[in-house]
Amino acid sequence: MRISLKRLGILAGALFLAALLIIVFVQYLFPFLFGAILSILFEPIVKRVVIYTHLPRWLSVFIILLLFLLLLGSGITYLIGRITSELLIFAVEVPRDIDRFIRLLFSLFPEERWQRFYDDLISWYSTFHPAGEEEIKRKLADWANRGEEYMLSLIQRFLEGFLSLLLRLPQTAAAFFLSLLASFFISLDLPQWIGWLKERTPRAFRIRMKELGRVLKEGVLEYGKAQLLLATLTALATTLGLLLLQLKYAFLLGIIAGFFDLIPFVGVGTLFLPWLFYLFLTGSHSLVIGLAALFILITFLRQFLEPRLVANSLGLAPILTMMALFLGFQWFGFLGFLLAPFVLILLISLYRAGFFHDLWNYIQEKI
């Protein structure tokens, strides 16, 4: 086995340069990168519009981008207004509901049973600490205060994050319009750029890259589209179900349900199960039946659609997925936790496409 140090250095330099370019584009030129992605995504639609309507390419691109802007802008405007009004009510009523829930938990058992448990706890703790009763009272009060403060701080951080998002809207809107402008000019010359690249790349390389693109599309892109579609359907089903049940925060809880559905090993049960338990304790049995039916419907809908949407499943082993989630969270926090399955699927797709085998052959000067 002969390894070429020259080729190994070239490969390492190319990887370093690619990583540097990605960092520069993401940090400093993200609107143009997003514009290029939009151009590639809209290219099949632009081709069909040009073929069927015989409109000039620039006019077809302009109409498609304008429709995209109108649909996205109207949807975001409506959602922001609706969610803001629901958040204002949510911030007032949820702390009161939490306090009521805690009182209900303590009312599940008779006062004598709580007193007996309290006396036994003091007796056991006093064997280790002489001032047992005062210490336990202090710790219980401290735990209760910490729990309430933690829940309130979570709500406060959520509200502050949403407010921060609203304050960044002008900057985000400016960057988005710049992306649309970049997408317009890129789309005008996209066929020429593709032709220029084809003329200057060897045919064997084009065939290999086409195969690699197909495998990546079947792996990463299909998985990503399937998960986004499933989360969107979950959010829509939750919102419609809550509106039919005439419940508050329908849009806000629908978005939260869709977000939970995106998180691996979490799902909408994280939202529905504690809520059902609370409603059962408060005696809202008719609402419990309605929400339970909605939860079962959403679960069955997801179980029915997931095998069909993720038809080209890569068969990830659960232990590999759990390891990827753990490492992603340890290295990059919550964002790493969310992106870990995509990175794992990307690596497996590259392996199955023979990408790493080709790199190894390149280093050994076999190709």
Describe the model.
The mean pLDDT is 77. Helix 3 crosses helix 6 (169-199). The longest helix is centred in the first third of the chain and has 50 residues, at 57-106. This protein is globular. The protein has 367 residues and is an all-alpha fold. It is built from 12 helices and no strands.
Please give the count of helices: 12
Please, what is the average pLDDT? 77
Helix proportion range: over 70%
Strand content: under 5%
Secondary structural class:
mainly alpha
| Main beta-sheet annotation | none
Overall 3D form: globular
Oligomer category: single chain
- Write the element-wise H/E pattern from the N-terminal end onward: HHHHHHHHHHHH
**DSSP summary, beta strand count:** 0
Report the end-to-end length measured between terminal Cα atoms: 14 Å
Give descriptors for this structure.
367 residues; 87% helix; globular
Topology at a glance:
Layout: H1 5-28, H2 30-53, H3 57-106, H4 111-126, H5 132-167, H6 169-199, H7 203-244, H8 250-262, H9 269-281, H10 285-309, H11 318-352, H12 355-363
Helix pairs in contact: 1-2, 2-3, 2-6, 3-5, 3-6, 7-8, 7-10, 7-11, 9-10
